[in-house]
């Protein structure tokens, strides 16, 4: 069987492909391609070229049109002639088995889609047995309907005929099962084993959560690479791995935080992303249980990202899928030190765009809409962190008094040496 989990990534060159459709204009497609390039970089690949095509919807057989596929093939051949080999072509949407097979036959290089690239990054980032099990299950779920592409030895395994001149050979007269059917059965058995392991992990995690005492639980959620791990390191004085790459954190990390006289538990969870595979969300159920069990969510947002409002919508939709849409939320707008805007000239009569909105205007707008349900900080530069702690203290204390009215866990205020 194919070995999935890997610990090292080799640098390869990649070509990116995306569509401009009725529901996805050119600006949005370019933003998606920027994110896809960041995903490729995280996986260890270097992007050398981008291709886009205008279509109402992806073609069933080849995703893009035949002319665009010929253009990509010619580019790959030209690069090979110039001793600049293109290692892979990455498509921004999930491809079907038929599309993968047809595109691979035409381009004759490795073909990846957005889902397989994310799974590859998860496999590279997985460190604990829990994360590795969840990633492997998601990989098998993705692989199962695409088995035809992975195997070429699909002849039957020695099927039967006796002495009458059938195709069976001596010692190889098996049940006549194809290699594809055997591989499917092996994978299904493996998936059943992995699901059982995850069920055992779920029970262990549930026991751990029960033993955490009568403390309010706060979960950091948000889009990937918005600074959640940096923030938990700052609040909990811990050393959670943080890096300027996507999905630096896969395993949930729980730390005890004390603000003033108030202790609570703060957990760092896996980041969300646009077009996240459903199988991945299902496989990471035990990790995302920390979000379901939380009393308060800290939704961290990268304010410096040009499309941060869409990222907020992606996270909100994912939270709704997890059944967490009604939980109390504080939106933490991070990276205010990296926020940039362009001031319009006085004689410029064109409509104001989001690129023309200053940080002060954004703060007034969001605070008018959410009151004390949002705050603007820079975790890296430690700007406005004390205000965040004050807000956290007030909200967590309210929840603590409501949930544990007779609990005397709150201790006298003390000053650290």
Write the layout of secondary structure elements.
Blueprint lengths: L11 E9 L5 H18 L1 E10 L11 H16 L6 E4 L5 H11 L2 E4 H12 L3 H15 L3 H4 L28 H32 L6 E6 L5 H9 L16 E7 L2 E7 L9 H6 L1 H9 L2 E7 L5 H14 L7 E6 L24 H12 L3 E3 L8 H19 L14
Parallel strand pairs: 1-2, 1-3, 3-4, 5-7, 5-8, 8-9, 9-10
Antiparallel strand pairs: 6-7
Helix pairs in contact: 1-4, 4-5, 5-7
Summarize this structure briefly.
With 417 residues, this protein is an alpha/beta fold. Helix content is 42%, strand content 15%. The protein has helices spanning 26-43, 66-81, 97-107, 114-125, 129-143, 147-150, 179-210, 228-236, 278-283, 285-293, 308-321, 359-370, 385-403, and strands at 12-20, 45-54, 88-91, 110-113, 217-222, 253-259, 262-268, 296-302, 329-334, 374-376.
Report the CATH topology name of the largest domain.
Rossmann fold
Number of strand elements: 10
Task: Supply the helix-strand structural class.
Answer: alpha/beta
Q: Please mark out the parts with pLDDT under 50 across 5 or more consecutive residues, or reply none.
A: 149-158, 161-168
Give the overall pLDDT as a whole number: 80
How much of the sequence lies in strands comes to 15-25%
What gyration radius follows from the Cα positions, in whole Å? 26 Å
CATH superfamily of the largest domain: P-loop containing nucleotide triphosphate hydrolases
Percent of residues in helices comes to: 40-55%
> Between the first and last Cα atoms, what is the distance in angstroms?
58 Å
Main beta-sheet strand count, sense and barrel state? 6 strands, mixed
**Global morphology:** globular
Instruction: Please count the helical segments.
Output: 13
Overall structural domain count: 3
Report the top-level CATH class of the largest domain: Alpha Beta
Order of helices and strands: EHEHEHEHHHHEHEEHHEHEHEH
Strand order of the largest sheet: 6-7-5-8-9-10
CATH architecture heading of the largest domain = 3-Layer(aba) Sandwich
């Amino acid at each position: 069987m194919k070995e999935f989990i890997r610990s090292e990534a080799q640098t390869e060159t990649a070509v990116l492909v995306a569509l401009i459709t009725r529901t996805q204009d050119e600006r949005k497609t370019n933003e998606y391609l920027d994110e896809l390039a960041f995903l490729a970089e995280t996986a260890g690949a270097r992007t050398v070229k981008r291709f886009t095509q205008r279509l109402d919807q992806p073609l069933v057989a080849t995703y893009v049109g035949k002319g665009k596929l010929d253009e990509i093939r010619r580019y790959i051949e030209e690069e090979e002639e110039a001793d600049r080999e293109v290692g892979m072509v990455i498509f921004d949407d999930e491809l079907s088995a038929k599309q993968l097979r047809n595109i691979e036959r035409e381009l004759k290089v490795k073909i990846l889609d957005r889902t397989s690239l994310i799974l590859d990054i998860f496999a590279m980032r997985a460190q604990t047995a829990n994360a590795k099990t969840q990633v492997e299950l998601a990989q098998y779920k993705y692989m199962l309907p695409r088995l035809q592409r992975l195997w070429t030895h699909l002849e039957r395994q020695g099927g039967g005929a006796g002495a009458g001149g059938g195709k069976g050979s001596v010692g190889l007269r098996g049940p006549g099962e194809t290699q594809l059917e055997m591989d499917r059965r092996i994978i299904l058995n493996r998936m059943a084993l992995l699901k059982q392991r995850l069920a055992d992990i779920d029970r262990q995690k549930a026991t751990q959560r029960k033993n955490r005492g009568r403390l309010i639980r706060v979960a950091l959620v948000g889009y990937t690479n918005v600074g959640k791990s940096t923030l938990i390191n700052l609040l909990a004085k811990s050393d959670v791995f943080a890096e300027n790459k996507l999905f630096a954190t896969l395993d949930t990390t729980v730390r005890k935080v004390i603000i003033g006289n108030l202790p609570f538990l703060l957990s760092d969870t896996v980041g969300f992303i646009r077009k996240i595979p459903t199988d991945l969300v299902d496989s990471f159920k035990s990790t995302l249980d920390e979000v379901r069990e939380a009393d308060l969510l800290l939704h961290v947002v990268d304010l410096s990202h040009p499309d941060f409002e869409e990222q907020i919508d992606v996270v909100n939709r994912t939270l709704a899928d997890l059944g967490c849409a009604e939980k109390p939320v504080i939106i933490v707008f991070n990276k205010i030190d990296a926020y940039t805007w362009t001031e319009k000239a006085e004689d410029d009569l064109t409509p104001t765009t989001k690129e023309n909105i200053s940080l002060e205007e954004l703060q007034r707008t969001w605070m008018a809409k959410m009151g004390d349900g949002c705050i603007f900080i820079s975790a890296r530069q430690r700007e406005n962190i004390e205000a965040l702690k004050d807000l956290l203290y007030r909200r967590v204390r309210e929840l603590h008094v409501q949930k544990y009215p007779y609990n005397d866990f709150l201790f006298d205020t003390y000053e650290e040496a």
